[in-house]
Amino acid sequence: MLMVFLSSGLFLGWSLGANDAANVFGTAVGSKMIRFKTAAIIASVFIVLGAVIGGSGAAHTLGKLGAVNAIAGSFMVAFAAGFTVFWMTKLQLPVSTSQAIVGAIIGWNLFSNSLTDYNSLTKILLTWVLCPVLSAAIAASIFSIFRAYINRIQIHMLRMDTHTRTGLLLVGAFGAYSLGANNIANVMGVFVPVAPFDGINFGWFSLSSAQILFFIGSLAIAVGVITYSKKVMDTVGSSLMRISPIAAFVVVLAEAIVLFLFSSEGLEHWLISNGLPSIPLVPVSSSQAVVGAVIGIGLVKGGRGINYSVLGEIATGWVTTPIIAGIISFVALFFLQNVFNQQVHLNMVYKINDPVIRYLDDHAVPIQDLEKFRNKKFDNPVAFQSALINNTSLDDDQVELIINTANIQHFKIDKYILDSKIDKDWLGKKRFAALVQIAGKEYKYKFQMVQDLEKISTEWRLKEKTIANKLYNKNIKQKLDYVANKFKTDQ
Amino acid sequence: MAILFKASKQLEYEIDEFLDAISEGVIVFKQGVKYYLADKKEPFLEQIKTIDELEFKADNLRHKIENELYTHSLIPEHRGDVLGLLETLDDVIDKAKETLSQFDVETPDIPTSLSEMYYELAETIVESCESMTKASRAFFKDVKAVKDHLHKVYFYEKEADKLADKLKRKIFGLDIHLSHKMHLRYFATHIDGIADRAEDVAQRLGIYTIKRSL
Q: The CATH number of the domain where B54 resides is what?
């Protein structure tokens, strides 16, 4: 049954592999610099590596945009995105998987009355605009440096040819890695909260539940690369973009850098630890990065022969793709729920009672405003949020805290799960020991469980909200979410 | 990848050798004309033999290079241009060889008063071809320098045209039989024709260079 639900994600992965691998190896294969077989093998291997090693950053942002909480819902969201991509490609409209999946997730949010995190949405939208611009800037700079260098070194045409081939292979591998890391979130991101896998420990390395999901998704991408991308590569390489192999090298390098920037947690870590502003980890469109890079090179060459209408097409895609995917997702979820009787989202119930009030009081929320909500039940976050906004004078952060705190969920710290399904190494010894101490307990609210854990071990406590502590806190929150997911019960 | 590196290194060497053969061939042509005009039969025949060998070598190298470029699908975007260039370069040595062998077959009776002009014409076309080979080498290694040589090719080609014209006028001003005049003119035209071939190469190089600049 799981594979049936995953199938829409796998289809999305297949189409991503068939289309987007051409952004990495298209020019090289189309211009016969690299054989398709070599390109397909390298692309497949590095897409899988990128997805498994570096896929979680961008997936995290998509998860924040809307956490699809029932597997049938995830199926439909991925299906809506896949169908949009398929349909728009058929109509020869510019389309990107990243934009389709965001639209589809928002469709789910609207259907299930879940809240859309506007912070994440703004971050994502800004990134889409930034992606081609950044890619153009990077490509233009690299190309200028390269041109000056090559003109200076007087290298033989044939030697240059061999170096370019090696370069194309290397940047192709880097591009494939970045593509896997950045775009696996599009394919498998919506399944992360509902993935039923347990982590696997191989001794010298281990795979988390999300990584197993990413591995399966990236295999689907690889199948797309091997079975269908040759046709696309031939088209890209020989007709759409007539650029020299050296320009192709620069284009792929710029694209790979951009995709890497928007997916690397390592880089984010480095930037934050050096007090620099971090780059949002968001799935972006590799096709738009390529178009940006080609335009960047065109501008360095004096701006002749640039087809500026492509820019209009890209901008249209930012608007039309998510809207179409959102509508399809909404309508399809309706059918799946009402015709096929599938649960496409879990009901979220909210109630403010004494423990919630005490907790909020501790966190400096003015509780006198909340008295009128005491013991009132709300069936969805949207209704709860609008009630809070309309009837209180609380600010946005306080409202968000109240919504997160008052969400009723059931948790039971099951001994069996504790012994066999928890990745102890990843959690850390002390944190796991704290969990063992609360074994057998049950909680109605997540914050109660968190409070208990914080009391037992300082390792579970968040640090002060500063830039330097951002990553540490993000890591602890991830661990708390992991624990909450593992011990959540249906009851 | 290692095979590719080896193949391209070998090709670099072969292209250099090909260009050497063309350049030597034209110099041998000049020497041949010089010996013919001085009526030195034996060294003249020696030059014919050498230019034959050089032309044969250039042909072989060209086929080999062509073959290897396709087998390893090297320089895909410039392959057509390079093959076109090698072919037109080959035409130059073909023309030089053909003209020299006509001296041997037809043994034109060149009056001593014209000898110097014939030799000067041969020297000018050698200058033109020398610049042509330099431009061709630069096309492979230092594309920016191609232009520096191309203008010399055009300059010497024009000089050759002027010299040939002057020579022809002088021929037809002589008091000799018309058939003799026509025979002498025929050789002036053919020697000048070598410079025209060099000009063909230069024209191609001009366009290829624009295509090659990044």
A: 1.20.58.220
